[in-house]
Write a structure and sequence with these properties.
It is found in: Cytoplasm. InterPro entries: MATH/TRAF_dom (IPR002083), TNF_rcpt-assoc_TRAF_met (IPR012227), TRAF-like (IPR008974), TRAF1-6_MATH_dom (IPR049342), Znf_RING/FYVE/PHD (IPR013083), Znf_TRAF (IPR001293). Keywords: Cytoplasm, Metal-binding, Repeat, Zinc, Zinc-finger. By secondary structure, the chain is of the alpha+beta class. Among the domains are: 74 residues, no CATH class; 58 residues; 156 residues, Apoptosis, Tumor Necrosis Factor Receptor Associated Protein 2, Chain A, CATH 2.60.210. A hairpin with a 7-residue loop joins strand 7 and strand 8. The longest helix has 29 residues. The radius of gyration is 59 Å and the shape is elongated.
Length: 431
């Protein structure tokens, strides 16, 4: 045993009140049976001991014979609850027990002042109708529990309310904001016509098609008519000004035609080839060949192209069934010089070499084909400065490729033929 529990005459055998917590008189009786010697008894009862509650904080220590009397007043020793709830409570905790935890205590609810036993108060807590609690809808308001149902139905800013016009539901604090934009809310006509209030969503159609007070422009406004007045006067205006409107429309059509032509010219200029090389893709070859064989002198012409931005303007042409010596047996190709915007600044006659190439398609070892070139003779009329006459003569090869060779080798694929016309860039005259 620890040193404080060792006596002078004998060591503790497990019978002291410190060890077993039994009544001191019972301890003395047991000791008398074991140690009938009065001197020994006196020595034992005079031994120094600590309170059995020293670990709970009691600082008492004295002779063993005084332990019982101390325990009757020790604040750490357990005593029966005076309310007879059946609990053994340390004296130091008795006040709190009687006030807060005793099931037989009498207490009043702080909200409704009703008196309950301890257990009844615990059951009452959380159900008291007079207790203020925050609204369950999280509107931020504290309301007595008994009035919560009324608050949620009548006063809560977060309760759901139905719009009287569109029948959609909104929280009460946003309903007014919705009303300012509700598409079905009736509003008066801004032109103050005699029609009853109209749904906001229908107002635009009313102003456009029905409102008699709205000032409308003439339907020929884009043509230049400046009439603007009440809708009911528009019909009479149209009847009385039919001739004037017709004149305005004719003038408008003329202006639009000029604009269309300007746009066409701009588009054509953007799509013009200024590289000096034309790659001409001819589709529907079979149909065009059949047409060429059935019509004499049928000529296909390419889009115009230029040797440079300010250079010569050229155009290629093709006779699928041949022309001149090649008629009926060959494909003929020609080049002609067209009148250009900058001809006055160029050197004449045209003297750059030109090469025609008809490509084979799908050749495994690279691009193959048939090519013919020539350098214009300065004396040839075809390459002098062109006049504005549309029938300017062309120059080329009437027997460029035979029909037999054209069909034997892969010049035609997917009913398409590719012909390249290239001007030698090394001989282009720069200005």
């Amino acid at each position: 045993m620890p040193e404080p529990y060792q006596f002078q005459i004998f060591r503790c055998k497990g019978f002291c009140p410190v060890c077993v917590g039994i009544d001191t008189s019972q301890t003395v009786k047991i000791l008398k049976e074991i140690y009938p010697d009065l001197d020994s008894e006196k020595a034992i009862m005079g031994s120094l001991v600590f309170c059995i509650h020293h670990k709970q904080g009691c600082k008492w220590s004295d002779e063993l014979r005084k332990l019982k009397a101390h325990l009757n007043t020790c604040k750490h020793d357990a005593a029966a609850c005076p309310n007879k709830c059946g609990s053994q409570i340390p004296r130091i905790m008795m006040t709190d027990h009687l006030q807060y935890t005793c099931t037989q205590r009498r207490a009043k609810c702080e909200f409704c002042n009703s008196e309950f036993s301890g257990q009844g108060l615990e059951e009452h807590a959380g159900t008291c109708s007079q207790e203020p609690i925050y609204c369950e809808a999280k509107c931020g308001v504290r309301v007595l529990r008994g009035r919560m149902s009324m608050h949620k139905n009548k006063d809560c800013a977060k309760r759901l309310r139905r719009c009287a016009h569109c029948q959609r539901e909104f929280s009460a604090d946003t309903l007014n904001l919705h009303g300012a934009s509700c598409p079905r809310a009736p509003i008066p006509c801004p032109q103050r016509c005699d029609v009853a209030p109209i749904a906001r969503a229908d107002m635009e159609a009313h102003l456009r098609d029905e409102c008699k007070a709205l000032a409308v422009a003439c339907t020929f406004k884009e043509a230049g008519c400046r009439f603007k007045g009440p809708r009911h006067l528009l019909e009479s205006h149209l009847e009385s000004n039919a001739a004037a409107h017709l004149s305005l429309m004719v003038a408008l059509a003329g202006r639009q035609g000029q604009q269309i032509q300007m746009l066409k010219n701009a588009v054509a200029k953007l799509s013009t080839n200024y590289t000096g090389t034309l790659l001409w893709k001819i589709t529907d070859w079979s149909a065009k060949m059949a047409e060429a064989k059935s019509k004499d002198g049928l000529e296909l012409v390419s889009p115009p192209f230029f040797t440079s931005q300010y250079g010569y303007k050229l155009q290629a042409s093709m006779f699928l069934n041949g022309n001149g010596p090649g008629e009926g047996t060959h494909v003929s190709v020609y080049i002609k010089v067209l009148p250009g915007e900058y001809d006055a600044l160029l050197k004449w006659p045209f003297s750059h070499s030109i090469t025609f190439t008809l490509f084979e398609q799908g050749v495994p070892n690279g691009q193959g084909g048939v090519a013919e070139s020539f350098v214009p003779d300065p004396s040839w009329e075809n390459f002098q400065r062109p006049s504005l006459e549309p029938d300017q003569l062309g120059f080329g090869f009437p027997r460029f490729i035979s029909h037999e060779l054209l069909n034997r080798r892969p010049f035609v694929k997917e009913d398409t033929v590719f012909l390249r016309v290239k001007v030698d860039p090394s001989k282009i005259v720069a200005v």
